[in-house]
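Teaching assistant here, posting this on the class forum so everyone can see the example we discussed in section. The complex has two components, and the goal was to see what a joint structure prediction looks like when all of them are supplied at once.
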Amino acid sequence: MPDPTAEVRMLLAAAGLPASDAEVAALAAHYPALREATDALYAPAAVRYADPALRFRADAQIVDWS
Amino acid sequence: MSELPLTLSDAAEALRAGTVTSRRLTERAIATADRADPVLGCYLHRFDELALASADTADAELAAGVDRGPLQGIPFGVKDILAMAEGPTTAQSHVLDPAWGAGRDAPVVARLKAAGAVITGKTSTMEFAIGMPDESKEFPVPRNPWDPATWPGGSSSGTGAGVAAGLFYAGLGTDTGGSIRIPAAFCGITGLMPTFGRVPKSGCVPLGYSLDHIGPMARSAEDCAAVLAVLAGPHASDPDCVDAPFTAPTCPDDLAGLRVGVVRDGHFPPGSDAALLDAFDDMAAELVDAGAGLIPVTLPYWDEMRTANMLTLACEALAYHRTDAQLRWADYYPATRAMLARGALVTGADYVQAQRMRRVAQDALRRILADVDVLLCPTTSVAAPRLDAFLSGDSSIMTLLGHIHTGYWDSVGNPVLALPMGFGATGLPLSVQLAGRPFDEATLLRVGQLLQRRTSWHLRQPAPVGAGTGVAA
């Protein structure tokens, strides 16, 4: 894995989030575990051909709530 | 409210019997808030005059035979991420545009008003329902009435603490990763996360669009059922909300034939409260004594659903907040910034994969719930932690996350009822979750009512705090 600090810094910059060096360091410390847990979502055999819990409706409208 | 009815349901009965008035209930709620809230920090905004006027209206209507149901005349708190016309909505943040929701009622608030509820105020939370307790801005740090040195749980902190301390009989919370059930657990009250899509979530500041649930927090399962009956039902503004009938169930005589799946895996990690296992086994024994059968169950895709909860929440929250975060990063609390930033650390494909994994877990859980009627597991494996660990920035507090067992259920969307189940080694409340099939809250509430008829944990009250009690701000 590339340097987690450099990768986190790059990803936050791409999103335009002005995190401090301390915040980048804290996130980088947890980044390998986050990446590992996220990659594990691709592992179960049952998910290989699963449909996502997402739906798009062509007739959807934005309706005000009050 | 010691000399007044303790539960919403008893108060509703007393109002109709004429043994109490809504004004009396409301005046007592206001007096309790005057005493306790400087310590507990439950309210961001109070509506004392509005509440008294609503109480008088309820009394007049009941006297005239106009009965709007069990919420009529009942003091009620609303979490401050829900819009209410009479007051500002802040989400406990400097960032939220004050114009958002100004002068408007969220559909759930409109339903409460139509049911005659006496809304006493907007309750404290954590910033945008994401953050952590933090003293760095002027918003109150909510405290637990069982021990004000401890956290009441979040993010529906003020609602949980307020019900426990008697500031109101019930309130609204929201649950995206556990924010109804965690404060219900730590404050020793009952909380219901309804099925995703049971209650319209429009008019609520979004956290995770596909995870957010609005639901009741109250002293008993019977009280939660009464509130859910008012909140439930479709609204055109929320495309996720479905038309699934709900009627508050009555308490059964027994649980003969009920099949209860008992979940232990992952719920008793090292460091669990020393009293947790006995308290959990006692609740399971109550179910057996009432006629239920127990079946050991392991929840499918436990780790994956916890990851999916965090990842989905972070991505959906970042989508909502990104523009503000770019421009006003320093105006957010540090814990909020950390969660939003996680949404930038994964890819679009990762987000979709989390939604594929959620579908797989839903299907696996559906098969388990074909063989059992409800699932039983601890809500958390520790009691309320001390606040000083949060406020000092002690990173060891993050071990708390391994003791919170709620996020799985937000990922799959099934309904979950959190009930008090005794006290931990330090004398603070413990809690158990009952989870069920989608849109089958009625079974959970029936089981919960029977458990609470056989036990009294939900009726225990913390000692008063505030001026004159020895526990002052």
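For the discussion questions: Chain B has 14 helices and eleven strands. The two ends of chain B are 20 Å apart (CA to CA). Think about how each of these relates to the inputs above.
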